Predict the 3D structure of the following.
Amino acid sequence: MRYERPETIQDATALLAGARDKAFVLAGGTDLLVRMQSDDFDAELVVDIKSIAGMGDIVRTPDAFIIGAAVPCAALAENEALVAAWPGIVEAANLIGSTQIQGRCTMSGNLCNASPAADSVPALVAASAQAKIAGPNGTRTVPVEQIPQGPGKTSLEKGEFIEAIVVPDAGAQAGDAYLRFTPRTEMDIAVVGVGVCLALDAEGVVQSARLALGAVGPTVVIAQDASASIIGTKLDDAALDAFAAAASAASHPIDDKRGTVEFRKEVAGVLARRAARIAYTRAGGN
Amino acid sequence: MVEVTLWGGLVPLADNQKTLTVEAGTIRDVLRALQERYPALSGPIRNEVAVVVDGVVYRNDWSREIPEGAEVFLMRRLAGG
Amino acid sequence: MSFDAAYQSQKFKSVGSRPLRPDGVDKVTGRARYGADFNMPGQLVARVLRSPHAHARIVSIDTARAEAVKGVKAVVTAADLPDLTNGDGALFAVLDNCMARTKALYDGHAVAAVAAIDEKSAKAALKLIDIEYEVLPHVVDVDAATRADAPILNDTVFTSGVTPAPDKPSNVANRSEFGHGDVDAGFEQADFIVERSYKTEQTHQGYIEPHACVANCNSDGTAELWVCTQGHFVYRQTCADLLGLEVSKLRVTSSEIGGGFGGKTHVWAEPVALALSRKAGRPVKLVMSREEVFRASGPTSATSIDVKIGARKDGKITAATATLRYTSGPYADMWAELGAMTSFACYDLANVKTVGFEVIVNRPKVAAYRAPSAPMAAFAVESAIDELAHKIGMDAVAFRIKNAAREGSKSSYGPVYGPIGIGPTLEAAQSHPHMSAPLGENQGRGMACGFWFNFGGQTCSDLNINADGTVTLAVGTVDVGGSRASLSLIAAEELGIDYQDVKAVIADTATLGYNDMTDGSRGTFSTSMATISAARNAIETMRARAALTWDIPVDDVFWEDGHAKAMGTKYGNLAPLSVKDIAAEAGNTGGPIAGHSEMVADGAGVSFATHICDVEVDPETGSTRIVRYTVIQDAGKAVHPSYVEGQYQGGAAQGIGWALNEEYIYGEDGRLQNPGFLDYRIPVCSDLPMIDTQILEIPNPNHPYGVRGVGETSIVPPLAAIANAVSNAAGVRMSHIPMSPPRILAALNAEKGK
Amino acid sequence: MSSIAVSTTINGDDVEYLCQADETLLDVLRNRLGLMGAKEGCGTGDCGACSAIVDGRVVCSCLVLGAEAQGRTIETIEGMANGSELHPLQRKFIEHAALQCGICTPGFLMAAKALLDVNSSPTEEEIRYWLAGNLCRCTGYDKIVRAVQDAAQEMQGERA
């Protein structure tokens, strides 16, 4: 295996494109290095992108936050503007692993690892975030939900890697939240993950809402009709019941060592209700 | 004379008797007497027995005297953790 | 010199204080050397090939291609470990478990091993070992294994303890029975009866240090083993037996041990490392990965237990029965028997009967896990006792006090009890502030009792008085939790000198007499007894030296407060001689001064504890949070209270993990699905509250200072205490451990009739 | 696979080594630099026994490549004491019996030091969540949390 540390995006894409066999991008490495432990892991090339200028920066533009692919999740919580604008995304990113993992892991890595139970992805999807992809023939930007294609599979072409996550400006009366279910209080993979983002009008009526569910399908599930069930309401109990029921209905989880189908479907509804209420208060609702 | 109670596993090796009386002053005397009367007991007695005298478990100290009227139990030699 | 172990009440100067431990600085600076921290020049790296099948016949193994890999120096299979166990079934089980001889009996069972100059070539060689398996049907569930249609794992196993002896092989290797009285008559007199079946899943000790050793065999038959172990003398004996070495020629050094809890009382890969070293003619370092530790070391049993208890309206239990099925892995042992013995041990019962079934399954070979077999039995019995108290309408503690065993009670496993501490722990629990603290929403309080045997054993220690009067204490029991500090306190107390003047070390097998395994909570109990004996021997020598110095009869010299003193006034006022004074003259009064002890420290006495636990159950997700936890246990005499508290807190934390989250999860294919700390979830720091402890000190009559073992009992009550708390918090009686959120939520839904 | 030359700073000293591309920083520390204080408990970032501080952040050294250390500043347990004078956290861990077997202690001390560097008087909950990445099987964490609280107070006193 070869280790390369390019200084520019062009060098990185060239290296990735030039690899005959499997090549991996190394940002935080907290997923990649775990895979490297197993006996049947082999790769021709690992490209460490942390020396490329800008990869480690969070840039605030008038209408978005541009989060470099090598920004460790711990750094997100240290950026007051981001925490103020997108508390849900930051809390999702900070639930990944432990303090030690937080010091290394990145949201781009979380996205590219394409685990159905990734923590930051539901929050990013709810926030309609975009992924800026660098490739041999220039960059393109796609909604984050288009990156994961199934467990461990992404839509990235050969030579491409994620350069940054672009989170749009939240807008005034908006709020987001992320909750997950894990048996322990830390260090667990989500059994269910729920990201909610909603915007209100001056009277506190929900104008728009997005609900994204993790660990209840091969990729993040965007529950369209759940979002619709609370638009036009002030999140009264009936709306919340409908929202929770729709969230459960949208989930199509599997039984595995971390949870059962019934448990995931039921808890998806419970967390959707709780996350919606938090997002609502954050958006200025009473 | 000392009354000795055997644990379930040993009963078939002693003509299906649960309790026996033997002449003994120490634990060593008890074990010797039992083996003389029922030779089949010598295997388990050699490598997997513990002796309980008045509620206290002894795994090795066969010189322990047995007070008059004390209750003697043969138990499996147990492992701890 | 015979040693009088009887308890003498006295006022202690050193024992009972909380000094800094002698090995502390090494451990906080990273200098302490554990199993994987030792290297020998020219050492090879070992890798073990493990069966991917739960049950398969090994048709053929061809290691030619592996041996041809550049850098590979040796490849071993069972053929390199000839059977020298001559009919000793238990030893043969150890041999077969270290490397499968005919069948792979569980996912992870070792089938071959490689030693090479580096990891890369070792891993490459493993892939080139051509092994042909004939996959057989497997069974991993304790109840499924007992059914008639279950695949038979070992056709030489016939259920023992059954008359007439069965003629068909079975997965039930042994039936054991305990108890007295007439249970049927007892149930007739009962006004209330609780009958329920319980299951507990298999758990692992979870020590953070994986097994590791460096083995070196020389051509002249001498050998060396540096290993993390709970008993290097026992490892020496077992490895010598399996490899045909002379015991005196195999020197085993116990490294610092990164946790054991019973899981390091057994050899797993050490004989394989020695075999590789013998074949390669070079030292071999073998370190297990975390995955290997889960798949192929010694977790505890999975169990299935039926309990029935009857009691009168006045709260007196009239009859109690339990049928306990314990998995032992592919090799039978005594685990079910231990469960049957401990289940009702806390209670004074007229009519009791317990039956244990040892069940072999395609899972790793079970080893002891802190009070082995007791926590599962206590979960079933203490849950049923709690339910019965509710039915009668009696307070849970009062109900237990009414039925608790006391001096003179006939125990459910046979012998009559001497003085025991269950009553005092229950009374202490009744008056503890925790018992009357307010509870919040969705919160509930539960309590439970626990029993464990505690053992003594063969113990040696050497106490050498150095020229400057300071003392080196060499002991043979392994120090996992601060016992070097406790034993230094014991030596200082008996000699009457300052704790700082004693340095305790763990001797290797070539420098000290044989010591039994450090298990059964005997570390401090037995070695403190041996240390007192050694100290008394040294005092006798020092009295003689003082007599020589003063030229007076030794009978007129007595020892007090660390000094030799002359009796009476007939010799004028001779200034007392301190250890330092006597040591300084030792060269001329007879040579180096030491005290030795080679003894059997027995009479440990049984141990009891009562735990109280508050939990909060989220009714919408079934997740359980431990809000408050209190451990009350009798230590006889707490030598170093901080480390006694540490045993109480550590046992409780392991019990909490076992009760809520930890379990071995097997797939349909019989393979372990969660061999790692991500999905085998032990409690993390943020999962637990502070764990309060109360140490009772009811002296053990069979120890000079009244010391009892404390290491294991604390893991026995938590499973039941938490189950009872969950029942009081959420109104559901959980009968399957661990009480994971999916199981609690399903129970809550069933309760609501959804 | 040819070796990679790395020059970095460990515990204030300039250090150079060769390592394989896929070799972890943990293996470099233990097998090449003789810094055995970091322990391997799992090799997958789930136990924290291999914790080290890289550029001020506490990380699992088993999930960092040796090659990534180029030009960074690394702190390991061996650098925590000031010569023979123990760091307050090291002293308090011994005083509070906040360790039994001690295999997890180096990792806990690295994580606790990183915590007090950014939060000089953390609450019990903040300590417990920050240290959740360090597994301990012996102590039940009670005395570890108390030792960190005590050290924070003492270091706070020094600053005041």
In short: Chain A touches chain D through 26 residues (CB under 8 Å). The longest strand of chain A covers residues 192-200. Residues 230 and 238 of chain A are 9 Å apart (CA to CA).
